[in-house]
Amino acid sequence: MAETPPGPKGEPLFGSSRTYADDPFRFISTLESAYGDVARFDMGPMDTVMLCDPAAIERVLVSEADRFRKPDFQGDALGDLLGDGLLLSEGETWEQQRRLANPAFSMARLSGMADRITGHAQDRIADWQEGDVVDVEQAMTRTTLDVILDLMMGVELSEQRVRTIEEQLIPLGQRFEPDPLRFAAPEWLPMPDDAAFDSAVETLDAVLDDIIAVREETVGTDEDGPMDFLSVLLRARDDGEQSPEQLRDEMMTMLLAGHDTTALTLTYTWFLLSEHPEAERKVHEELDEMVGDERPGMDHVRELDYLEWVIQEAMRLYPPVYTIFREPTEDVELSAYPVEAGTTLMLPQWGVHRSARFYDDPETFDPERWKPERATERPRFAYFPFGGGPRHCIGKHLAMLEAQLIVATTAKQYRLDFTGETPLELMPSLTAHPRQEMSMRVQTRD
Predict the structure, then answer these.
(1) What is the dihedral sign for C-alpha 290, 284, 296, 144?
(2) Could you tell me the pTM of the whole model?
(3) Treating both helix axes as pointing N-terminal to C-terminal, what angle do 136-153 and 244-275 enclose, rounded to 10 degrees?
(4) How many CB atoms within 10 Å of residue 305?
(5) 105 near 287, Cβ under 8 Å?
(6) Which residues pair with 196 in a beta bridge?
(7) CB atoms within 10 A of CB 184
């Protein structure tokens, strides 16, 4: 057994962090192509091992998940933003919060919400006219914000309030773009974008305070009260099981993580359909056959196989969460290499999803690669847009239901033709956003 995984040497002090910051997507793909299952590099002072071995990823996320934890982000900006919410919490805190959240995300509940999701999609496209040019990323962001505010917080905000939330997403995203100076600098050193980040967090905290105040008197009891996540947490707070700080952290996590990845999935789905007219035609044919003149609902979703494949393929090519991190709590062996406790493990969806080792023509948009007979030929963790194991994304079923219903509702009426420049350039933050404005021309379907 070799003593250390192979990988690039990097520079003094910065290691590979400047190369990574310049283009993390290219960096990940280059390492996957050059080293395969495992590669080691320095992210500034941080020793990092990148795993692109589906079997090793399965061990980290599923079969040996108790030997790995999320890195401690509590001392940095991500901890300041999300605190001890579901995304970052560990141990008993995470177990309790996950238990409280499960009923709000159950398919039994969500299936009854399908009509409300469709309604939000219809409201957002109601004013579209033939020839309009819309920013589809903005449109999808606002739609998914509407959905998460309704289904998980039980509120409907004014257009101005939704715009206020949306405006804060820019400085938040900029704060988490890779920066080699941040990788190398001590956490206490002030940086130029800190003030804008702090102001955005303060503004969102005020929005959440207002939402909580509105809902205080409407939560009911466990027997007869609403089952949105905020109501569940407010009842737990009243029973002494939830601190105000924990409530805030969960709502901030829900507000941000609950809409962003789905909005990006939808944005990339529209882009790919615009670039691939044959796939778009098949989506329309399926909708015409399965939905017809009806309002898209839960019964239709179960029949829209091709549309589901399109969305899965969009998440393969453009995974909104393009890499996730873990660290071993003890010395382990992964892909035949020893890895010390505390080493940062990078599990990059971007590198695995686009690997020629697992996909034929991996850069090609091919929804039919998700036919069951083809999908089962690949290792299970050659595709993991929602993570996996006990820490898999709790919103997985909601995200897929949203995406299918919003695409179905919109594509029944319209085609969207991308008018921007290609190829897409991606902006790395906590999630992968397009750099250019996603302008699309609205065309009414005949």
Answers:
(1) positive
(2) 0.95
(3) 140
(4) 14
(5) no
(6) none
(7) 17
Q: At 205, is the secondary structure helix, strand, or coil?
A: helix
Q: What is the Cα–Cα distance from 54 to 378, expressed in whole angstroms?
A: 10
Q: Residues 247-290: pLDDT tens digits?
A: 999 999 999 999 999 999 999 999 999 999 999 999 999 999 99
Strand partners, 443: 415
Residue 67 clears pLDDT 60, i.e. is over it: yes
CB atoms within 10 A of CB 159: 8
CB-based contacts of 49, cutoff 8 Å, min separation 6: 5, 38, 39, 40, 334, 337, 339, 343, 344, 345, 346
Q: 339-374 pLDDT, tens per residue?
A: 999 999 999 999 999 999 999 999 999 999 999 999
- Residue 74, pLDDT > 50, answer no
> Quick one: residue 327, left, alpha or beta (phi over 0 = left, psi -120 to 50 = alpha)?
beta
In contact, 383 and 374? CB cutoff 8 Å: no
In order of 42, 59, 108, 393, the CA distances from 62 in angstroms are: 26, 5, 25, 13
Q: Which amino acid is at 42?
A: D
Alpha-carbon gap, residue 38 to 51, rounded angstroms? 5
Note the pLDDT tens digit of each residue in 296-311. Answer: 999 999 999 999 999 9
Q: How far apart are CA 288 and CA 335, in angstroms?
A: 48
Residue 311, C-beta contacts closer than 8 angstroms, at least 6 positions apart: 265, 269, 400, 403, 404, 407
Cα distances from 139 to residues 162, 357, 377, 436, in angstroms, run: 12, 36, 36, 15
Residue 293: CB partners within 8 Å, gap ≥ 6?
none
What the block records as the tokens of 67 is: 């030997």
Interatomic CA distance for residues 38 and 7, integer angstroms: 8
Other CB atoms within a 10 A radius of the CB of residue 30 amount to: 15
